[in-house]
Amino acid sequence: MSARFISFEGIDGAGKSTHIARLAERFSQRGATLVNTREPGGTELAEALRGLFLHSGMDGLTEALLVFAGRRDHLVRVIEPALAAGQTVICDRFTDATFAYQGFGRGMDLTVLGTLEQWVQQGRQPDLTLWFDLPAEMAASRRAAARAADRFEQQDLDFFERVRAGYAARAAAAPQRFARIDAAQSIEQVAAQIDAVMEARGW
Ligand code: TMP
Predict the structure, then answer these.
(1) CB of 64 closer than 6 angstroms to any ligand 1 atom
(2) Which residues on neighbouring strands pair with residue 4, listed in sequence order?
(3) What per-residue confidence (pLDDT) applies to 81?
(4) How far apart are CA 88 and CA 32, in angstroms?
(5) How far is the CA of 102 from the centre of ligand 1 (A)?
(6) What is the pLDDT of residues 2-53, one digit of tens each?
(7) Which of 68, 95, 98, 144 is the most exposed place for a label (fewest CB within 10 A)?
């Protein structure tokens, strides 16, 4: 099977987890060798950085530098070797999250983020990004029902609407890579949307 790199994106509370598990199952059933990973994280070093990232106070540039440092390790040790071996990589968040959260959410300079993206990724991008889009208010009520909030999840609705706008801007700039999923719909309807995207690509 040919190598595939799929990322899942969206504001916190969009409901990605259920569908990541479901897509992983679908690929496994079809005989794909799968790497199911996440950012921030995915290696021992990057998981250690994740703990700091989610729980220590810092400014937007420090957040971006930490997350790109972890991403570099993740790419070098996990993602690039898996793709070179023809495997399917499913990643819960990738660089679009940095543009959305640090860029649009925190107001970090997008040109600086673009430079870091170039250095760290050397042109590597996901083949497909499933963007779970829904209003910030709906995501907030889903989160409140599900779990205690981390440093990002404590941000207000305006922050999450900016993050959402950040994802919309990234999607508009790379329409072939992005598939927008209407995440306000039911689990079954979201699953059907994802199946349609996969079928359209022959996956
Ligand atoms: P998660 O809860 O989906 O694992 O994501 C952890 C949090 O980190 C989430 O609130 C989004 C945030 N984040 C960023 O701010 N920048 C990034 O580059 C990434 C990957 C995540």
Answers:
(1) no
(2) 88
(3) 98
(4) 7
(5) 10
(6) 799 999 999 999 999 999 999 999 999 999 999 999 999 999 999 999 999 9
(7) 144
| Per-residue pLDDT tens over the stretch 161-196 | 999 999 999 999 999 999 999 999 999 999 999 999
> 46 and 39 in contact (C-beta within 8 Å)?
yes
Distance from residue 132's CA to the centre of ligand 1 (Å): 14
What's residue 1's pLDDT?
55
Class of domain 4-200: alpha beta
Q: What is the pLDDT of residue 90?
A: 98
Mutate which of 61, 101, 112 for ligand 1? The one with the most ligand atoms within 8 Å of its CB, which is 101
Partner residues linked to 52 by β-bridges? none
What is the chain's length? 203
For the Cβ of 113 lying below 6 angstroms from any atom of ligand 1, the answer is: no
* Distance from the alpha carbon of residue 53 to the mean position of ligand 1, in angstroms: 9
Q: Does ligand 1 have an atom closer than 6 angstroms to the CB of 98?
A: yes
Residues 6 or more apart whose CB falls under 8 angstroms from that of 40 comprise 46, 47, 49, 50, 53, 54, 66, 67, 70, 71, 93
